[in-house]
Design brief:
By secondary structure, this protein is mostly helical. The protein is 86% helix and 0% strand. The model has no long low-confidence stretch (mean pLDDT 88).
């Protein structure tokens, strides 16, 4: 495979860290004189890497939201300290709902 020798994962990660769009990546690859099939394969690999990063970010946000929701539920049900009741009921629950929605946004878009 000559494709992997000319473009490696480090360069794809560099494109992602520089926040290049698909059109910019295609233009960059065209200036190198690559064939259209090779460019389409590299763009697919680029998109796959971007979506993997986005998916992992979504799972992390949704997991943190689920944990915050559980903590809020436990604090509201057990009521160990009266001062923590409203923090658990409204604070952690609101934070959990926001984080879960953000995580689902990253996962489903």
């Amino acid at each position: 495979m000559q494709i992997t020798s000319s473009i490696d994962r480090d360069e794809i990660q560099e494109w992602i860290s520089n926040k290049l769009s698909v059109q910019m990546v295609e233009a960059l690859l065209q200036t190198r004189g690559l064939e259209a099939e090779t460019i389409s394969l590299l763009v697919k690999e680029f998109n796959k890497e971007r979506y993997a990063i986005r998916r992992s970010r979504g799972f992390i946000c949704a997991s943190i939201g689920a944990i915050a929701g559980f903590i809020g539920c436990v604090l509201a049900l057990l009521n160990p300290l009266p001062e923590l009741y409203y923090l658990g009921l409204y604070g952690f629950t609101s934070l959990a709902a926001i984080l879960i929605c953000v995580g689902l946004y990253f996962l489903l878009e």
